[in-house]
């Protein structure tokens, strides 16, 4: 058996096993050394392959796709700095628990550390950000080696998906020649035996005695809070709201919790807690007896202050599988159980009277007061950043996705996203919270065919404009709503704003770019509405357009700062009067 046949059979069995193990999508960035993988993946009848030229964009595209599909997506690149460009998305995938199968091609061992081109040290390149790393053997094609290569493919997909999902990394050393021979008989090997590693994974669940013990502990208190942080499970909202209704306690729901929108009951959801908790005096008067949190820590910084100030109270954090996501540094009881099942189990046990009803009614009334100010639309003659979010939530179609960027975008969504009966899935890259890769991530979500609106700022848009190529190349339908305050608007809310000498150069960073030209270059449509009525019309038009649609809302950072602060002042004054 010659080199080409060994290379072909080795690679074909690996690729086929990816498919056998449930993988359906591979994002390929072109390169020479990855030729065996790229061509074989493109040849496979059951794998969809997507070609994204820039590796950094490709990895974020895969992340957005995997986040939407909630299963592993593979990425393939050549050797050298091509693999290094994956790093930001792999870090994000690790922290946001998104499954990726990272396949990097490499020089064979004899060409490493010799000055050969495109040869860097790729062994454990992503360090602890990969759940599992394996340096693949050089291609051989005897029966033992074909079993070996299938075992690694199957393990990679399983490991990426299991437990807390995340990225895995396999490194492939390939010798030249690199072109596979697809004319070989029985190219894909024995395909009728199913995956090499069949996997059955159960959910973690507390037993009846543990449930009773937990409920007895919680129901010895009067003033409880359920907090729902970022989490992806679409079944969770109905379960947690049923639990809250049984206990009659408020739910503080993060915009990424999947709890603010949907068909479930929302009477007990407090979506304006970020505005409510901005005042230290108000926080002091809302001291709870306990907090039980599902999902990651919420976006809201006032909530983080609130938790830190109540570090002495019993706090419980529920993790579906494992982890210690408790950045406040408080003493915490970790509960490892499927969140949806835990809510259903706890709702079945009622020991005594409901919790303090005055406590619930106080939160509900404060939420009503805050929402009255936040949803006031007396500024419709201009487009504010809050008004932009209000319009988006009003106009976005039912059964669609809002993919939100970091910095001000996600914070404005937190502030102005009131409960809705629409079925909306809210996605964001809140693992490492970076502004990079947002366009590509939104494109990855759009590649699944779901309607996507990407909400982000001008710096995030600029950071990843090459991600727009995917929309042009694959005809993806996506609306991108760019809030352009000409720089880093979030810094206007931070202490750096008081240092005028260096603020604009180091933090404000105005771009002064005309994005319309970039949108045109990538074949998209562009609109720049001047007020809320025009923004509503622009959004409506974009949702009936097939392809890339970019809507740019221009705002002023200084005016935006004053506008936000005035809203928060009005809310604070009314809440202090109420209390």
Explain how this protein is built.
- The structure is a single chain.
- With 579 residues, this protein is of the alpha/beta class.
- The protein has 3 domains: 3-173, Thiamin diphosphate (ThDP)-binding fold, Pyr/PP domains (Rossmann fold, 3-Layer(aba) Sandwich); 208-356, Rossmann fold, CATH 3.40.50.1220; 375-573, Rossmann fold, CATH 3.40.50.970.
- Helix content is 40%, strand content 15%.
- It has 22 helices and 18 strands.
- The protein has helices spanning 3-20, 35-43, 55-69, 81-84, 87-96, 143-161, 208-218, 236-247, 273-276, 280-285, 301-309, 339-347, 357-374, 385-395, 408-416, 438-446, 458-463, 469-474, 500-508, 515-521, 532-542, 557-578; strands spanning 25-28, 48-51, 73-77, 100-106, 133-135, 167-173, 224-228, 251-253, 269-270, 290-294, 315-319, 333-336, 400-404, 424-428, 452-457, 478-484, 525-527, 548-554.
- Helix 6 (143-161) links the parallel strand 5 (133-135) and strand 6 (167-173).
- Helix 1 (3-20) packs across helix 2 (35-43) and helix 3 runs parallel beside helix 5.
- The radius of gyration is 26 Å and the shape is globular.
């Amino acid at each position: 058996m010659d080199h080409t046949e060994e290379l072909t059979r080795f690679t074909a069995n690996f690729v086929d096993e990816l498919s056998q193990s449930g993988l359906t999508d591979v994002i390929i960035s072109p390169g020479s050394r990855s030729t065996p993988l790229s061509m074989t993946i493109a040849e496979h009848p059951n794998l969809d392959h997507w070609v994204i030229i820039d590796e950094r964009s490709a990895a974020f595209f895969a992340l957005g796709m995997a986040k939407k599909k909630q299963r592993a997506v593979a990425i393939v690149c050549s050797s050298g700095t091509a693999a290094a460009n994956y790093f930001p998305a792999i870090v994000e995938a690790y922290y946001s628990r998104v499954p990726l199968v990272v396949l990097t091609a490499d020089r064979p061992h004899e060409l490493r550390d010799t000055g050969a081109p495109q040869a860097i040290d790729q062994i454990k390149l992503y360090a602890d950000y990969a759940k599992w790393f394996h340096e693949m053997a050089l291609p051989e094609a005897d029966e033992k080696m074909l079993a070996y290569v299938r075992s690694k493919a199957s393990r990679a997909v399983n490991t990426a998906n299991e437990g807390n999902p995340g990225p895995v990394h396999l490194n492939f050393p390939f010798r030249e020649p690199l072109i596979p021979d697809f004319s070989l008989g029985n190219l894909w090997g024995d395909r009728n035996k199913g995956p090499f590693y069949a996997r059955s994974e159960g959910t973690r669940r507390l037993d009846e005695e543990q449930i009773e013990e937990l409920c007895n502990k919680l129901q010895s208190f009067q003033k409880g809070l359920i907090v729902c942080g970022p989490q992806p499970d679409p079944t969770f909202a109905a379960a947690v709201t049923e639990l809250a209704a049984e206990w009659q306690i408020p739910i503080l729901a993060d915009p990424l919790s999947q709890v603010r929108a949907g068909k479930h009951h929302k009477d007990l959801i407090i979506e304006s807690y970020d505005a409510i908790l901005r005042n230290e005096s108000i926080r002091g008067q809302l001291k709870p007896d306990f907090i039980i949190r599902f999902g990651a820590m919420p976006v809201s910084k006032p909530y983080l202050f609130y938790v830190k100030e109540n570090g002495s109270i019993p706090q419980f954090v529920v993790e579906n599988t494992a982890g210690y996501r408790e950045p406040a540094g408080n003493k915490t009881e970790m509960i490892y159980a499927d969140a949806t099942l835990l809510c259903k189990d706890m709702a079945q046990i009622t020991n005594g009277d409901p919790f303090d009803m005055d406590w619930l009614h106080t939160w509900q009334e404060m939420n009503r007061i805050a929402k009255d100010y936040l949803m006031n639309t007396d500024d419709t003659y201009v487009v504010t950043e809050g008004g932009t979010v209000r319009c988006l939530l009003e106009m976005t179609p039912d059964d669609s996705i809002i993919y939100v960027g970091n910095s001000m975008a996600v914070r404005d969504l937190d502030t102005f996203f009131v409960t809705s009966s629409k079925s909306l899935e809210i996605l964001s890259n809140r693992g490492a919270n970076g502004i990079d890769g947002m366009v590509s991530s939104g494109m990855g979500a759009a590649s699944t065919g779901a309607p996507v609106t990407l909400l982000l700022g001008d710096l995030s848009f600029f950071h990843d404009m090459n991600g727009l190529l995917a929309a042009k190349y694959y005809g993806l339908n996506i609306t991108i709503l760019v809030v352009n305050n000409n720089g880093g608007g979030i810094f206007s809310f931070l202490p750096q704003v008081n240092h005028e000498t260096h603020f604009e150069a180091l933090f404000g960073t105005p771009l002064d770019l005309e994005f319309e030209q970039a949108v045109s270059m990538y074949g998209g449509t562009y609109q720049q509405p001047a007020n809320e009525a025009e923004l509503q019309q622009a959004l409506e038009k974009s949702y009936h357009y097939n392809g890339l649609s970019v809507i740019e809302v221009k705002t002023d950072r200084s005016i935006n700062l004053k506008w936000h602060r005035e809203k928060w002042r009005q809310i604070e004054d009314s809440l202090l009067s109420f209390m």
